[in-house]
Amino acid sequence: MTNAPLVLTVTKGGEYSIAKQVIPSAELQAKLEAIFEARGEKELFLRADEEAPYGVVVQAMAAARRAGATRLGIVTEEERS
Fold this sequence. Notes:
The chain is built from 2 helices and 5 strands. By secondary structure, it is an alpha/beta fold. The protein has a 5-stranded mixed beta sheet, with helices on one face. α1 (28-39) packs across α2 (54-66). The relative contact order is 0.24.
């Protein structure tokens, strides 16, 4: 069984969301732990708005690692002309 990739989005306002569900920063690590446990695989892709605060993005990466992420990828989108 193949799961869709798990994507954590960081908005320019510094909010976190997974599958369009906003996750408070204080709950991010616990939410990721629960998702990883249910999925079995511990791979996460991070998509951050280019205007997202750097510190918020770093906090997301740290929470993912503490939650047990074994692979962390970055989702990029091509620049629009």
